[in-house]
Amino acid sequence: MQDAHANLEGKVYKLGRGGADEQHKADQALFHELLQEHQQLKRETRLIDNGIVATTTSDNPHLAKVLQQHVVGMEKRFGMGRAIRSWDPLFVALFEYKDEISMDYKAIPKGVEATLTTENPKLIELIHAHDATLHGFVDKGFEAGRSESPKPSWLE
């Protein structure tokens, strides 16, 4: 018998599907627009002792607003434990350890600046893997969005 949370591609959603409510649809539409227009995005990351400070920007004012709305939506989902990409081991781990990861963000003129930190040294590697995933989304769009994310060695 197939897993109740498996889709036609054989991906198993360990924390269930994202949902079909209006908020999920809005979050998904923003994410899809960012993947579609990925070539208009720029991401830079600075490593800090306990995490990262990353800026994601666009010279396109509309996409800068989409970035800002996306980050607000993801912060809400993270805070409520409403998983995304729960077929992807990295994202499953992010939601499992969400109470040990702090996310602070601010809107900047062309997008967002986000700071992700943790006091758990093991989770710094998880934050770095998430950052590499987001760089992949910016670099490759939907191609990266369909692939499993890089993950820390301890997550094997």
Distance between the termini: 25 Å
Q: What would you call the shape?
A: globular
Q: Please count the helical segments.
A: 5
Structural class: alpha+beta
What is the domain tally? 1
What topology, given as strand order, has the largest sheet?
Answer: 1-2-4-3
Report the sheet with the most strands, covering strand number, pairing sense and barrel closure: 4 strands, antiparallel
Uncertain stretches? 1-8, 12-17
Explain what you see.
This protein is of the alpha+beta class and 156 residues long. It has one domain (22-155). 43% of the residues lie in helices and 21% in strands. The chain contains five helices and four strands; from the N terminus they run αββααββαα. The chain has helices at 22-36, 61-80, 89-96, 121-140, 142-145, and strands at 41-48, 51-58, 101-108, 111-118. The chain has a four-stranded antiparallel β-sheet with strand order 1-2-4-3. Helix 1 packs across helix 2 and helix 3 (89-96) crosses helix 4 (121-140). The chain is globular. It starts with 21 loop residues before the first helix and ends in an 11-residue tail after the last helix. The relative contact order is 0.17. The model is unreliable at 1-8 and 12-17 (pLDDT under 50).
Main attributes?
single chain; 156 residues; alpha+beta; four-stranded antiparallel β-sheet; 5 helices; globular
Short overview:
The chain has helices at 22-36, 61-80, 89-96, 121-140, 142-145; strands at residues 41-48, 51-58, 101-108, 111-118.
